[in-house]
Design goal:
Blueprint lengths: L1 H17 L2 H22 L5 E7 L5 H12 L4 E5 L3 H9 L5 E5 L3 H11 L7 E5 L4 H30 L8 H11 L29 H26 L10 H27 L5 H26 L2 H18 L10 H4 L3 H8 L4 H40 L1
Parallel strand pairs: 1-2, 1-3
Antiparallel strand pairs: 3-4
Helix pairs in contact: 1-9, 2-8, 2-9, 3-6, 5-6, 8-9, 8-10, 8-11, 8-13, 9-10, 10-13, 10-14, 13-14
């Protein structure tokens, strides 16, 4: 019986929400943001554009290097050109940031360079308009790929030059030792502290990575909009039948239902783009985040209690949250300011269990602040009443 009543009220409050165009727009923004970023992520993109070309397109080693570079580009965008002149022209006219030109006779050049390390035996030419930090980092990618093909020759050259005790061994015998000790696993394993599932980091497209943060900000936007709805409901006397002491519970119900609807769509969207962690963890942090966002909206309502002021503050709060919270980047300088906003806890809680605890503390702090504001306003109201009574008596 009680469950039927709860479901009935939940559906009634939800129905009221969907009659408000502003809430429907916020709700629609969640899948639209995911869809838009998903489309962009599938396109050819990158922070740095590299023009690739080969002096000899029939060179097997050169082709393997090109394939390896383009198959795992990450933040680099590679564009292949038929000739080195075309690649250099693309840099000259700003279509590319850098041109990597693989020279002919790669196998012979690699052997020659491994023994002499002279510019005359260069394996590739790099053409750039200017030196930037990103271009310097991008060259690490080229060096990493080229070294794989030069490593054995460098090993043989070093051994022949510096380890004379092994002179009696042939190159094939030396390479047997090389192959035996060659590490096939990754040298480094990256993980988040206090994370679940072994803590290993997922390989995620950098354009999709901010989706969780952006959606969490939209949820807070919905909570703030719900706070404005409640202010208007109060003016219209929608909840006049509810005792004043219990209106805070009705307000929380209005807030949490709005946030739950947004969080449900957000959860589906996160799974759609593959940003999800384990279902249990997702649900746990989402429940806590829904409560945090709802209480944040209530806190702002109790602070200002004016729909116009709250509406004017929404763009400011959204901008600050996107800039300060770890939506795109983590700024340690703003760590203290981040703690005022719910998205900080939700974004970090995905991979750091400590932030789940912090979110519980945040909820408690919001409850205390709301209670304190209500108490102060009650004292102010009683003070005004007592002054009014004194004036009447005089």
């Amino acid at each position: 019986m009680i469950m039927k009543i709860i479901i009935k009220w939940f559906l009634l409050f939800t129905k009221r929400l969907y009659k408000k165009a502003s809430f429907v727009i916020i709700l629609a923004l969640i899948p639209l943001v995911v869809l838009g970023l998903g489309i962009v992520a599938k396109q050819d993109s990158g922070f740095v554009t590299i023009a690739l070309s080969q002096k000899d397109s029939t060179d097997k080693t050169s082709n393997k290097i090109i394939d390896e570079l383009t198959s795992d580009s990450g933040l680099l965008r590679f564009v292949e050109y038929d000739t080195s002149e075309e690649a250099i022209e693309s840099v000259r006219y700003g279509n590319s940031d850098s041109a990597w030109i693989l020279l002919d006779n790669m196998s012979e050049r690699i052997k020659a360079f491994s023994s002499t390390k002279s510019a005359d035996n260069a394996i590739a030419h790099v053409v750039e308009r200017e030196q930037t930090v990103l271009l310097r980092i991008s060259r690490e990618k080229l060096s990493n790929v080229l070294y794989k093909y030069a490593a054995k020759d460098v090993y043989l050259s070093y051994t022949r030059t510096n380890v004379s005790v092994l002179d009696q061994l042939s190159d094939d015998e030396l390479l047997m030792y090389y192959d035996d000790f060659f590490a096939t696993d990754e040298l480094f394993e990256y993980a988040y502290p206090s994370s679940s599932g072994g803590g290993q980091m997922q390989q995620i497209n950098y354009l999709i990575a901010p989706v969780r943060g952006l959606l969490s900000v939209l949820v807070v936007l919905g909570a703030m909009a719900s706070a404005m709805f409640f202010i208007r409901d109060e003016k219209q006397g929608t909840f006049a039948w509810v005792p004043e002491s219990r209106k805070i519970y009705v307000e929380f119900v209005c807030q949490i239902i709005a946030v739950i609807n947004l969080c449900a769509v957000m959860l589906i969207s996160i799974y759609a783009v593959g940003l999800n962690v384990s279902l249990l963890r997702e649900l746990a942090i989402l429940v806590l985040y829904a409560i945090s966002a709802a209480l944040f909206g209530m806190l702002l309502r109790h602070l200002f209690n004016n729909a116009k002021i709250l509406g004017a503050l929404i763009p400011l709060f959204i901008t600050v949250m996107i800039a300060v919270c770890p939506v795109f980047f983590e700024f340690k300088e703003f760590r203290f300011l981040q703690m005022f906003f719910p998205p900080t806890y939700y974004i970090n809680a995905v991979n750091n269990t400590n932030y789940i605890k912090y979110m519980v503390v945040y909820i408690a702090v919001c409850l205390v602040l709301i209670a304190a504001i209500k108490f102060i306003k009650k004292l102010q109201y009683q003070s005004i009443l007592s002054k009014g009574n004194k004036k009447r008596q005089t």
